[in-house]
Design a protein that fits this description.
This protein has ten helices and 23 strands. About 15% of the residues lie in helices and about 30% in strands. The chain has three domains: about 220 residues, Sandwich (Jelly Rolls), CATH 2.60.120.260; about 90 residues, no CATH class; about 110 residues, no CATH class. About 45% of the residues are buried. With about 475 residues, it is of the alpha+beta class. It binds calcium ion. The site of calcium ion has 9 residues, from strand 5.
Length: about 475
C-alpha cells in the first residue's frame, strides 16, 4: 500500500507539469445518422453478462456488442468493469445521450485500454462512416457539486476516447487481446464531462467491417469512466466523391488499387462495386478483386489440378466468389478458398468437391460465433429420421425451404444445388432484420427492409469462405496475395 501511495504521489507531480500543455480541439459539426447498420446502437435493447466470453469481473455489455480489453496489472491496463448506465437510478449527471441507458466501463485507481466492438456485414467496397456519442468522467477528486459529478481538472486521468473501423471486419481472437492492427482509428479526444461525437470513415475490404470504441486513460486516478451512446454506422457516398483527407475524421490513407496491367482490358467477370480488375493469364485467370490493393490470386489449370476449369463449371465468381487464397493442402487434398466456396481437387474423381465449410466450422466450435457475429442459424441436431435413405434425407432437408418461398427459389436457381450449397441444415430463422437459412456450404438471407446491398424481400447468400477466414478457420492457409507488377 505504501508503494501505491508513493506511486500516486509521483503521478500527481507529473500531472501538474502536464496541465499547462492541455489543449482541446474545436468540436466538429454534428453528423446525423440515417439507415443505421448497427444493432442496439442506443443501448436500449438489453444487455448480457460477459463472464462466459472471458471477462473476469461481473461485467455486462449491451446486446450485439462484445467487450475487448488488455490485461495488465492492478494499476496499468487493469481490466475495466462494464455496466449499462441506468439513468432512472443514476444519481449523477444525465449520462444517457438519449433514452434510458448508455454503455459504461471504468476502473478505479487504474488505467485501461479497453472498449467494445460490433461486426457488421457489408459488401466489399462500401464507403462507411461510423460515429458515436461519448462522455468521460475522469480525475482524482469526486467533483460533486451538489447535483452532479464533474471531472477533476487539477488531477485528470487524461482519458482518451476514439472510434475505429476495421475495414477487413477482423475481430480480436478473445477477451484480453487488442483490436487488430488493421483498425482505422479517429484522432483521440481528451474532452471530459460533456457529450461529444466521434467519427471515422473507411471503405470495406471484405464481407464485413467491425466498429470499435476505445477508452484509454493515461493516469491511474480514482475515476476513469466513459459512457457511450447513440452510435451509428452508415453508407457514406460522399466518401467516394471527395479525397479521403477531405472527409471528417477520415483515415489518411485509403486502400488503393494497383495500376492495372494492360491485360485488364480483356473480358471482366461480374464484379462487386469498387472491385479491381481481373485478367487472363496462362491456363487461367488472375483476380485482384480480393487482393486488398496488394495484388491478387491466380486460378489456373496445371498438371496438379484444374481449378480454373472447375471454377467455371460451378458458375464462376457469381457462385464461387473470387479467390481469397493461394492453393494449399487440406485433408491431403489440394485446396483453394474462394469468397463463397472452398474447393478441393479430387484426383480420384478428376474434379473438385466443395468443402462443407459451415459443417466444418460447426465441428470447430464456431456455431456461437457464427450466430453472434453473422446471425447464422445454429444447425439442427438429430433431424434426419433413423434409417432414412439418402433420397428421404434430401427430401426432408429440402422441405425446410418450404417455409420461405424466396429462399427456396434462390436455392433451386442453380443447376445443382446439392453440389453448390449442400443440404439445408437449419430451419428458416427470424434474425431481426432478415430471415436466414443455413446449408452445409452457404447461408441464405432474405432482408425484411432495404439494405445498402439488397432491397426488402431480396435474398442474398453470405460468403462462406469469407466468414471462415474472418473467424480464423482458414488460419495457417496462404492468404497473402501474389503481387502485381
Ligand atoms: Ca441510450
Amino acid at each position: 500500500m505504501r508503494l501505491r501511495i508513493l506511486t500516486l504521489a509521483l503521478t500527481f507531480v507529473a500531472l501538474g507539469a502536464l496541465l499547462a500543455t492541455s489543449v482541446s480541439a474545436a468540436p466538429p459539426a454534428e453528423i446525423s445518422c440515417s439507415n443505421n447498420l448497427l444493432q442496439n446502437a442506443g443501448f436500449e435493447e438489453g444487455s448480457r453478462k460477459t463472464e462466459s466470453i472471458g471477462t473476469s469481473l461481473s461485467s455486462a455489455v449491451g446486446n450485439a456488442w462484445t467487450p475487448w480489453l488488455l490485461r495488465g496489472d492492478e494499476r496499468v491496463n487493469r481490466e475495466p468493469e462494464y455496466k449499462l448506465e441506468d439513468t432512472n437510478i443514476s444519481k449523477t449527471r444525465f449520462r444517457a445521450h438519449s433514452g434510458r441507458y448508455s454503455q459504461k466501463w471504468f476502473t478505479s485507481w487504474g488505467t485501461h485500454d479497453a472498449g467494445v466492438y460490433q461486426q457488421v456485414q457489408v459488401p466489399p467496397g462500401t464507403p462507411l462512416t461510423a460515429t458515436t456519442w461519448v462522455q468521460v468522467y475522469s480525475g482524482e477528486a469526486d467533483g460533486f457539486n451538489g447535483t452532479e459529478f464533474l471531472s477533476d481538472p487539477q488531477l485528470p486521468g487524461k482519458y482518451r476516447v476514439s472510434i475505429g473501423i476495421d475495414p477487413t471486419g477482423a475481430t480480436p481472437p478473445g477477451v484480453g487481446a487488442p483490436p487488430p492492427d488493421t483498425v482505422i482509428w479517429s484522432e483521440p479526444s481528451l474532452k471530459t464531462d460533456d457529450w461529444h461525437q466521434l467519427a471515422v470513415s473507411a471503405v470495406s475490404q471484405g464481407p464485413a467491417v467491425t466498429v470499435y470504441f476505445k477508452g484509454q486513460p493515461e493516469f491511474s486516478v480514482k475515476h476513469n469512466d466513459s459512457f457511450w451512446d447513440d452510435a451509428c454506422l452508415f453508407v457514406d457516398p460522399a466518401l467516394q466523391a471527395k479525397p479521403a483527407s477531405a472527409a471528417p475524421a477520415a483515415p489518411s490513407t485509403q486502400p488503393t488499387t494497383p495500376a492495372a496491367p494492360s491485360a485488364s482490358a480483356s473480358n471482366a467477370v461480374m464484379k462487386p462495386a469498387g472491385a479491381g480488375a481481373d485478367f487472363a493469364i496462362a491456363n487461367g485467370r488472375f483476380f485482384t478483386q480480393t487482393g486488398a490493393g496488394q495484388g491478387g490470386f491466380a486460378v489456373v489449370d496445371d498438371a496438379q489440378a484444374k481449378f480454373w476449369t472447375e471454377f467455371q463449371r460451378l458458375g464462376g465468381a457469381e457462385t464461387v466468389g473470387y479467390p481469397i487464397s493461394q492453393r494449399y493442402e487440406r485433408d491431403s487434398f489440394l485446396t483453394q478458398a474462394f469468397q463463397k466456396l472452398i474447393l478441393q481437387w479430387r484426383p480420384d474423381l478428376g474434379m473438385v468437391t466443395v468443402v462443407n465449410v459451415f459443417d466444418e466450422m460447426s465441428k470447430a466450435g464456431l456455431d456461437p460465433a457464427l450466430l453472434e457475429k453473422y446471425q447464422t442459424p445454429k444447425p439442427l441436431a438429430n433431424f434426419d429420421p433413423t434409417g432414412a435413405t439418402w433420397a428421404q434425407i434430401v427430401s426432408g432437408r429440402q422441405a425446410l425451404l418450404d417455409a420461405n418461398p424466396a429462399i427456396k427459389a434462390r436455392y433451386f436457381s442453380v443447376a445443382d444445388p446439392l453440389t453448390v450449397f449442400g443440404l439445408p441444415v437449419s430451419k428458416v430463422e427470424d434474425m431481426g432484420n432478415h430471415y436466414a437459412l443455413r446449408t452445409q456450404r452457404a447461408v441464405f438471407q432474405q432482408w425484411k427492409q432495404d439494405m445498402p446491398f439488397a432491397k426488402a424481400g431480396e435474398v442474398t447468400i453470405a460468403n462462406g469462405g469469407d466468414l471462415a477466414r474472418s473467424l480464423g478457420w482458414l488460419g495457417g492457409s496462404p492468404l497473402t496475395p501474389t503481387q502485381v507488377q
